[in-house]
Write a structure and sequence with these properties.
Blueprint (H helix, E strand, L loop, with lengths): L1 E7 L6 E8 L2 E9 L10 H15 L3 E5 L7 H20 L3 E5 L1 H9 L6 H12 L8 H18 L2
Length: 157
């Protein structure tokens, strides 16, 4: 069995998804927001601590993180980049192999084309992982999609 973690970094919310792959069968393990206290706050210390706890609890073999591809708002891009840096450092400190995926790579891997909508990705994630209810919040669904990308990419290594 191999465990994969997907992380969708944001300025105030960091979605994650954990899946297992066992002899070609993919299963959801957990998903949610890192360090979520219900107020949408996303300070870097809280994120690093929450990620450390997640890594200790689930011990993923590989983690996938969304690569910042393009943003119109420079201030938002800087905040997301800073959070990604904290996440990448924490992953390195825990010795977790990390893969990066652009949003288009995620869409192509999950839906077969790079212009898939958020809804299409969420529907495919639910179908592939056999999850009956909608995955909420959207950031967590994105985390599961990134974990699926990891599982797909790991096959080629």
């Amino acid at each position: 069995m191999t465990r994969f973690l997907g992380i969708d970094p944001g300025t105030t919310r960091i979605g994650y998804g954990v899946i297992d792959e066992d002899h070609g069968t993919l299963s959801p393990v957990a998903w949610g927001l890192l360090g979520d206290h219900g107020d949408g706050s996303g300070d870097k210390d809280t994120a690093a601590r929450a990620l450390g706890e997640l890594l200790t609890m689930y011990r993923p073999a590989v983690t996938g993180i969304e690569r910042l591809f393009f943003m119109n708002n420079q201030r938002t891009a800087m905040s997301v980049s800073e959070m990604r840096g904290v996440i990448m450092l924490t992953l390195q400190q825990y010795g977790v192999r990390t893969l990066e995926f652009t949003p288009q790579q995620v869409k192509r891997t999950i839906c077969g084309h790079g212009r898939a909508s958020k809804r299409q990705i969420q529907d495919m994630v639910r179908m592939v992982l056999r999850i009956r209810e909608p995955v909420r919040p959207d950031d967590a669904a994105d985390g599961l999609a990134l974990a699926l990308c990891c599982a797909t990419a790991a096959v080629s290594y």
